[in-house]
Amino acid sequence: MIHPVILCGGSGTRLWPLSRKDYPKQFARIFGEESLFQASVRRASGDCFAQPVILSHSDFRFLAAEQLSALGIEKATIILEPEARNTAPAILSAALYLDSEGCGEDVMLVAPSDHVIRDVQAYHQALDAGADAARKGRLVTFGVKPARAETGYGYLELDDAPDSFGAHAVPVTHFVEKPDASRAAEMFASGRYMWNAGIFMFRVRDIIAAFETCSASMVGPCREAVDNARPDLGFIRLDEAAYARTPEDSIDYAVMETADNVSTVPVDCGWSDLGAWDAVWHEMMPDAHGVAKSGAVTQLDCHNTLLRSEENGPHLVGVGLENTAVVAMGDAVLVADMSDLQKVKVAVQRLKDQGVPQAETFPRCYRPWGWYQTLALGERFQVKQIMVPPGRQLSLQSHVHRAEHWVVVAGSANVTIGEEVQLVCENQSVYIPIGTVHRLENPGKVDLHLIEVQTGSYLGEDDIVRYEDIYNRA
Amino acid sequence: MIHPVILCGGSGTRLWPLSRKDYPKQFARIFGEESLFQASVRRASGDCFAQPVILSHSDFRFLAAEQLSALGIEKATIILEPEARNTAPAILSAALYLDSEGCGEDVMLVAPSDHVIRDVQAYHQALDAGADAARKGRLVTFGVKPARAETGYGYLELDDAPDSFGAHAVPVTHFVEKPDASRAAEMFASGRYMWNAGIFMFRVRDIIAAFETCSASMVGPCREAVDNARPDLGFIRLDEAAYARTPEDSIDYAVMETADNVSTVPVDCGWSDLGAWDAVWHEMMPDAHGVAKSGAVTQLDCHNTLLRSEENGPHLVGVGLENTAVVAMGDAVLVADMSDLQKVKVAVQRLKDQGVPQAETFPRCYRPWGWYQTLALGERFQVKQIMVPPGRQLSLQSHVHRAEHWVVVAGSANVTIGEEVQLVCENQSVYIPIGTVHRLENPGKVDLHLIEVQTGSYLGEDDIVRYEDIYNRA
To answer: Residue ranges of the Nucleotidyl transferase domain (chains A, B) (predicted)?
Structure first.
């Protein structure tokens, strides 16, 4: 049995506006209905895999749990990092956790959750080869056959150009940092350099031993963080103080580049890290004119262009565009030259500096009890759509500055107002006066949708007093 | 006294998505708070002008009246064309109307409502010169000094390049159709050709006489359309059957090109017909990099680019763009190469063919009683924001398929439900069951805003039975 360890604490901005700080890339629906995170988990499930271990950030815990549940995966371990400290402490913590569960002799697979792999069969074949090598005590990396002279990735240098892909592990000579353009061209031409995909396999005890040898200072704090971890509604929270003392480092620097038992499995599996919108454009299989589109899009005479209107987005019309990427949402639109997509990060930072909420906040806000989305915001009123899945409930709460009207438009709600509890059905409404303690719950079998109309002089999310909360937020 | 006649029945699509069939360019806010229509009316108001005569289409009557009222103009004649039949019947009808009001000896000024004039002083000076010539029996056109070798306009050919602009009328040799590029370059170089701006001045009786001479067949039906016009809530509706018999023609073809008493006043007044988004870009005074922006926009390294986010639109981010026009609204986004803007019309036709509502329907829907805007549309529910100015009321109505919840978020409403009338104030709500006769009215002194939540199996606008309507729509 292989233990998949999926890393999903990251929060990049280069796929803005679809990826935002509070709803990052790995959870977004970039290709169809399945998120990259869900695809990563699905790729590491099946007969030869144990239940997944998910490493994530506290902010994304309900999102991760929700997406696992949508995938039909009810058994998973979700370990919450108190803060992001790069890959080394995360992977070591996962290894120590698995060891504490008695799985020290087993092989673990570490995979990022925000990459795409088109040829899953080739990937699984390479994992078989990796597992063989790991069982022999090797620390296995996976080296992706380069598709071009890319300057954005690190490389793995091999002794010889591989004679096959996915078949067996070979020794790694060097880890190579991101090269400049001319060096990248040389490396690409030689055939001896593979992209470092950030995917690893090793026995649990082997990687712990490697940390003890190569990065001994990391082991103590990480072990303490795991030993003192506390369960929280099914999640495992690493100890905050101990985790804060772990050195911030990548697994490459901390272990792989210095360990003497590293191997790589060369693999050719249609891998992409989706580092920017041009990579997404490429994965969307552009037509003969180079046009890739998704959602409500109409185009005329465009070439080498990405046109996306995301879920519930505006109707996007492109006319005569060349080498342009357009991503349209109801609250934010990106239009960029394909060759300038690395600057999206800079643009998002600028938005953040200007205090534009769209820089970091996704329009649909996910909560442990479901989600809400603002439909209209006026000077003294706000309209929200609220969705609560069956069995969930919001906290028992009150507001100092706003009254709320709730109209149920689908499903049924159990509504507590003051001392009274009532069942509110489709096409019924209730009123919650300022200051009144209230709670919303879905007692039914179908999703509850309601429209909330708030009125008051202050309508911020922070006007909330929580009295009780089944999600421990009170 | 000069009688301004403002033509505002047009409905172009080249400024889509801001200009749509049901909310065309002349009423849109392209530059600041004032619409092009309002600016046109304001330019023709003051001591030497009589109250304006507005020629418009029935669909836009309340929009035109609303925008006049916002301008503080309470006295205006709004003549409604039953259908658009080009400029000749519209102008002749206005002349016949003015004649019937005893103004036959007066001078009328005919001006489009969807153009921009930057130098109003130069324009007024030219109008003075035009009025002098008109009083001597001339049919006066205004010839705009060309700024470039434009192929998109018709031209007026003069005997000589004018020695001054706006000072006096000179004879016109020929009307010249839109030229090809090389002919346009020659004409531009010669200095003898002026752009035909579609602005005219003549005595009322002189233009009627000119029609009798040059387009006699138009006079009978137009006179009948005016004589049989009927008043409707302050508007004047031309007789439909008679107007349908008028030949569809432009004033240029019908009269100006054949009449022997035509003069032109050469004028240099910063005129633009805003024929496409590049013209808007030009009028917005781009910065040193050629970037013009308005609304919620952030840009990085763009050149010669128009970036607009319209009122309540998404936050628009442009990165590394060249020669690109972007116009973003919540429900529709246009991204086009600057040199392909004439194709926007084709793209909008394609949207229409695809049945995309955004092709023709503006998100905010103006009605005689105010406006509404859809905030969310679900499978069995719809959320709308509704605004009713003081003193207005909706029709007494009922719906077969939907119930409605109204939450007042600003102002006060008089709500009739069945036999009962109640005052509903801010932060109060009412429920209108399916099939119940109801009416909404603003009895107050400030705008009424309410949120309407509809639930039901069919939510189309046509599920309405009107019993009484002060706007004669029952």
So the answer is: 4-285
Q: Which domains does chain A have, with CATH numbers?
A: 2-272 (3.90.550.10), 277-353 (no CATH), 368-468 (2.60.120.10)
Residue written as token pair 């103004």: B103
What is the DSSP code (8-state) at residue B102?
A: T
Inter-helix orientation angle B216-227/B87-100, to 10°: 50
Mark yes or no for CB contact B340/A319 under 8 Å. yes
- Fill in the amino acid letter for A73: I
Write out chain A residues lying below 8 Å of B386, CB-based.
Answer: none
Q: What is the pLDDT of residue A90?
A: 97
Residues of A in contact with B322 (CB under 8 A): 337
Tokens linked to A294: 């998704």
Contact at 8 Å (CB) between B388 and B442? yes
Phi/psi at A309 (5° precision): -115, 115
Residue A128: predicted pLDDT: 97
ipTM score for this prediction: 0.92
Binary contact (A347, B409; C-beta < 8 A): no
How would you classify the pairing of strands A332-337 and B315-319?
parallel
Which residues of chain B carry a pLDDT beneath 70? none
Q: Is the pLDDT of residue A466 over 90?
A: yes
Residues with Cβ within 8 Å of A163's Cβ and at least 6 positions away in sequence, in order, are none
According to DSSP, the residues that pair with B403 across neighbouring strands are: B455
Identify the weakest region by mean pLDDT among A191-205, A215-229, B64-78: B64-78
Cβ A277 vs Cβ A336: under 8 Å: yes
Distance of CA A231 to the CA centre of its chain: 22
Is residue B37 helix, strand or coil?
helix
Answer yes or no: is pLDDT of A474 > 80.
no
- Of the two residues A74 and B454, the one the predictor is more confident about is B454
3-state secondary structure of B258: coil
User: Phi and psi for A78 in degrees, rounded to 5?
Assistant: -110, 110
Chain A residues within an 8 Å CB radius of B320? 336-337, 339-340, 343
Q: Work out the mean pLDDT of chain A and round it to a whole number.
A: 95
Q: Any residues with CB less than 8 A from the CB of A370 and at least 6 apart, and which? A: A386, A387, A388, A389, A392, A442, A447, A448
User: β-strands B305-309, B396-398: how paired?
Assistant: unpaired
From chain A, the residues in CB contact with B329 under 8 A are 314
Measure in Å the smallest separation between the Cα of A325 and chain B Cα atoms.
10
| Residue B258 main-chain phi, psi, to 5 deg | -115, -20
Q: Do A333 and B314 touch (CB under 8 A)?
A: yes
Task: Map chain A to HEC letters.
Answer: CEEEEEECCCCCCCCCCCCECCECHHHCCCECCECHHHHHHHHCCCCCECCCEEEEEHHHHHHHHHHHHHCCCCCCEEEEECCCCCHHHHHHHHHHHHHHCCCCCCEEEEEECCCEECCHHHHHHHHHHHHHHHHCCCEEEEEECCCCCCCCCCEEEECCCCCCCCCCCEEEEEEECCCCHHHHHHHHHHCCEEEEEEEEEEEHHHHHHHHHHHCHHHHHHHHHHHHCCEEECCEEECCHHHHHCCCCCCHHHHHHCCCCCEEEEEECCCEECCCCHHHHHHHCCCCCCCEEEECCEEEECCECEEEEECCCCCEEEEECCECEEEEECCCEEEEEEHHHHHHHHHHHHHHHHCCCHHHCCCCEEEECCEEEEEEEECCCEEEEEEEECCCCECCEEECCCEEEEEEEEECCEEEEECCEEEEECCCCEEEECCCCCEEEECCCCCCEEEEEEEEECCCCCCCCEEEECCCCCC
Indicate the residue of A335, A378, A409 with minimum beta-carbon distance to B381: A409
Q: How confident is the model at residue A261 (pLDDT cuts 50, 70, 90)?
A: very high
pLDDT (mean) for A357-384: 91
Q: What gap in Å lies between CA B429 and CA B440, rounded to an integer?
A: 12
